[in-house]
Amino acid sequence: MIKIFKTFFIILFFITPVVWLSNYPGEVKILWRDYFIETSFTLYILILVFFSFCLSFFYLLYKKIIGFPENYKLRKNTQKLEIIGNSLNEIIKSINSGDNKKIDLGARIIKKQIGNNLFSTYVLSQSAISNNDYLKAKKYMKMLLKEKEGKFIGLKGLSLIALKENSMKEAQYYLEESLKIEPDNLWSLDKLSLLLARSNEWEKAAKLLESVKIKKNEKVIENRANFLMQAGAHPLEVWKVSKNIIPIVIKIIRYYIDEGKERKAYEVLAQSWQKLQYVGMVKEFVCIKEPDIKVSLRRFKLVLKALKPSLESDETKLGLAIAAFHASLWGETKKYLENIKQENWDSRIIELWRKLENNSDRLEIPRMPVNIKDTPQWVCKNCEKLTNSWSIKCENCKEIGQVIWSKSDLEKINQSHFENLFN
Predict the structure, then answer these.
(1) What is the pLDDT of residues 48-87, one digit of tens each?
(2) pLDDT attached to residue 65
(3) Which of 55, 111, 196, 238 is the most exposed place for a label (fewest CB within 10 A)?
(4) Which architecture does CATH list for 243-371?
(5) In what order do the strands lie in the sheet with 386-387?
(6) Helix, strand or coil for residue 376?
(7) SS3 of 31, please?
């Protein structure tokens, strides 16, 4: 209904003046030089409208002709942006699928559209690295060195390639040069400190990471703590840096126990157990040079309190069983051992059952399973080599700080082919 009224009033608005002019046409007389023009007012209005239309048309035509180059350029830029946008989408999809050929193609399209820019050159270099084509990767990295904004990226990339090629001196040179541009860059500092550590320059490696804001990077924090430990720093100093290094936790527990600070040793165990879950820490805490049942019972209670938040873990149950055994609590020892599923029993658990059997005639010892799991070992996160003891340097791949306890909850970092793109 409202639309009908609206249409009616619009028609009325236009018809009313037309009808009025037709009823009262009027006259217009124009005297210009020796010419006398006489016409109706309606025709005069129509002529004015016609000339106005013509002027508007020619004005718009003129504007269009003048603005044609700019509009053409704008259309071209819009097409370029669309091509670049599609190429970026394809690069992202290809990174996820690991299709290096499509990544290469996408980067080249972007490079063609906007010239020799940082992004496309860097993507091409990373694609070459993932294909182990280090010669081509170096070519792209050296292209980045020629641009002011790309110099640091180029140096960083060249150092990465040198590391992959085991050219340690070359890698050290590029890393040192990159730090002249960005002195606080965490990636460069971390890689350079690891190179120094490989040469057993522990103090220099630790010093390099001393003033860096590394609170959010646990791995770098652990590296610094490891370097300090190898340099001979006091365990307490290392403990302040990182609480994720098992050898240091054991040394700290032993230090506090020897100093008669049992409560401090308990706090260390409580703070570190959930992540590390290494029963050797419990053994160190409950170990007594001269047997004392009161001390053993007290320490068992402290171990129970420290480990209780992780009671679902088999390592926790084994740790509590060990603490109970040292306190001569045979029933408690049996209870915690029985809580571990038989399919998860390894030689450590079997050994404790045997000790329990030798110390108590009253307890019924279960039948030992035929198939026993392998005893947990230390494992290198880099090459997955297993070893019986911790070492700061993997004996197999020579990487620094990669050996962890296989039962710990420390994150295993899985690196993709294109990890370097986002460093």
Answers:
(1) 777 787 888 888 888 778 877 777 777 776 776 676 667 6
(2) 82
(3) 55
(4) Alpha Horseshoe (1.25)
(5) 386-387, 378-380, 403-405
(6) coil
(7) strand
